[in-house]
Amino acid sequence: MEAEVAQLPEGERAEFLDGLGLVDSGVSYLDFGHHVKELVRIWMGLPICVGIAPSPTLAKLANHAAKHYPATRGVVDLTDRDRQRRLMHLTPVEEVWGIGRKLSKRLDALGIKTALDLADSDPKWIRDHFSVVVERTVRELNGIPCHSDLLEVAPAKQQILCSKSFGAPVTDLNSMLAAITAHASRASEKLRRENRDCGYLAAFMSTSRFRTGSHYANQQGITLPFPTSDTREIVRHAVSIARSLWREGYRYNKAGIVLTDFRVPGACQSDFFSQVEDDERNRKLMRTLDKINSIAGKNTIQFGRQIHKNQSWQMRRENLSPAYTTRWADIPVAIS
After folding, report:
1. For residues 105 and 322, what is the distance between their CA atoms, to the nearest angstrom?
2. Which residues are paired to 203 by β-bridges?
3. Any idea which architecture 160-265+286-306 has in CATH?
4. pTM greater than 0.85 (yes/no)
5. What whole-number distance in Å separates Cα of residue 325 and Cα of residue 216?
6. Contact at 8 Å (CB) between 197 and 265?
7. How far apart are CA 134 and CA 130, in angstroms?
8. Which strand (E) or helix (H) includes residue 278?
């Protein structure tokens, strides 16, 4: 059975099965669809429908049928061409993926009322009178995949930048170090989400160009002694750079962290004195930190330097919209 494998956060893997080998292995597409549906129900507690077809547009059509026809029990296999044509004959053209209400009116005026009418249209004529996007839809309805990019894995990032303008000008070093620590912690989380270590770190700070008075802006970067995604190491080096960049007497309005030179964890040669078991213990600690903050809320566990009495550098959020669906404290209370 062939599959495309994509690397996900925390080392998890998602397999995008292309279906090759399912029949030879004795597993039918329909049985496989029911198996996936049941696994998602058990693991996630979510009811889903599964559509199986040779192209994304037909798969969307199969999924639509699985939702609206109870007899399918939530799974539709459209690998058979006769079944495809029967379903397309019953499906209005506006229900086809990529065909909106306005476009369906133009198609209806030309006598194309169902998905089958669109599938039987000449692709070249459709392209000349509509667009290449609609032409691809016609080809997809005939089982020719034209949206292969949907299964492509997003390329790994080459750089991570964490920076915010301050809510109020920063004039003391401790507040600046608190902001730099917060940005470094956030950048480290993003780095681990990419399952990468970084070999180069840079920090910068600046005053506002639009305010009167003297202006100061500077940045500095270092090559790390060894590639890492450990928040403690990244914060330590970031704070050291920030101290060297700091100049008294300025009103700073922005600072940030940049991570580059990404490496695959464990792929770099370590030095003679490094302890492999220590490195693995540190990675487990960082995974635990990320998991707690993910479950209990952002910044549930943070570094002491972030908890500074002067938090004026934080963004202004007086007019932040309530998060009614994701935060308990923001749910409206009705009193009868």
Report:
1. 39
2. 220, 257
3. 2-Layer Sandwich (3.30)
4. no
5. 43
6. yes
7. 7
8. helix 276-296
**How would you write the pLDDT of the chain (336 residues) with one tens digit per residue?**
333 333 333 333 333 344 444 545 567 888 888 998 998 899 888 888 898 888 888 888 999 899 988 888 999 988 888 988 999 999 898 888 888 788 888 888 889 899 999 999 898 898 888 888 889 889 988 888 876 655 555 666 889 999 988 888 899 998 999 999 999 999 999 999 988 999 999 999 999 988 888 899 999 999 998 899 999 999 999 999 999 999 999 999 999 999 999 988 876 666 656 555 567 888 899 999 999 988 888 878 888 777 766 667 776 666 778 888 877 788 888 887
Q: How many CB atoms lie within 10 A of CB 119?
A: 23
Residue type, 39: L
Alpha carbon separation from 260 to 59, 155, 226, 283 (Å, rounded): 39, 15, 13, 19
Q: How many CB atoms lie within 10 A of CB 99?
A: 22
Q: Which residues contact 273 (CB under 8 A, 6 or more apart)?
A: none
What residue segments make up the domains of the chain, in order of their start? 3-151, 160-265+286-306
- Kindly give, in sequence order, each residue whose CB lies less than 8 Å from that of residue 105, ignoring residues fewer than 6 positions away: none
Half-sphere exposure of 317 (CA within 13 A, CB side): 10
CATH 3.40.50.1370, domain 3-151, yes or no: no
Strands of the 197-207 sheet, one edge to the other: 160-170, 252-263, 197-207, 217-228
Please spell the DSSP secondary structure of 189-257, one letter per residue.
HHHHHTT-EEEEEEEEEEE-TTSSS---EEEEEEEEEEEE--HHHHHHHHHHHHHHH--TT--EEEEEE
